[in-house]
Amino acid sequence: MALENPHNWDSDSDSDDEFKVQGDEIPKYRNRVKKEIRQGYKISKKPNVKLVGLSASASSLLDIIDTFDRPGEASAVGPYAESGSYAHGGGENEPGKRIPKVGAYAGAGVGKAKAEFSVFEAEAKGPNASAAAEAKPYSFGAIARAELGSVSAAAGPLKATLGLGVDTGVKVAVDGIEAKILGTGIRLGPNTSVSVLGSELSCVIS
Questions:
Q1: What is the domain extent for residue 143?
Q2: Residues annotated as region Disordered (predicted)?
């Protein structure tokens, strides 16, 4: 069955009928829209809600300096509880010790599996709760998290996550400022977003 073409955009008519796209305040003209489509322009951009996150940031790009020669390691545990603190002055030619950092962390959950090698990392978690605070030359912050479950994968500065959880905390870095309370908050920077109860509404304007 052929698709209908109510505006006759492919016709040779020279008329330039005015119409409005739903949600747009500025009228569109048929000939203008045809030209934009042919030249590959995006007429409009709308924010989208997502439970899956894919991100790349300046902070994670700088972290590559610390992990590019990290040895391979894999682990899997059932119920777990962990805590600790660390402080590195940086300047050592070893994975995780090139960039100065200080921090502390604690977490507990019912299952976790993780694998890492060089700048690549993958992790899956069952229900869990955690808290961490860290300071580096290019970022600092503290965050607490409660999740029903999540999976994540990272390759250098690119990181993808899928899960249902809520975060509370604040982070300031070279790539923006982020603040959340129980999964609801805002991130200001190149990828500005608003999070509501764990779901994210983002809008990138170019």
A1: 48-202
A2: 1-26
For residue 111, being part of any structural domain is answered with: yes
The whole-angstrom separation of Cα 159 and Cα 53 is: 8
Say how many C-beta atoms besides its own lie within 10 A of residue 101's C-beta: 20
- Count up the domains in the chain and report the number: 1
The pTM of this model reads: 0.53
- List Cβ<8 Å contacts ≥24 apart for 164-170: 164/51, 164/198, 165/198, 166/197, 166/198, 167/143, 167/195, 167/198, 168/143, 168/144, 169/141, 169/142, 169/143, 169/144, 170/141, 170/142, 170/143
Tell me the per-residue pLDDT of 47-78, one tens digit each, with 9 for 90 and over: 444 455 556 666 777 778 888 788 888 887 88
Cα(63)–Cα(143) distance, integer angstroms: 18
| Phi, psi (degrees; rounded to nearest 5) at 205 | -105, 125
Residues facing residue 171 across a β-bridge: 141, 178
Q: Is residue 43 part of a domain?
A: no
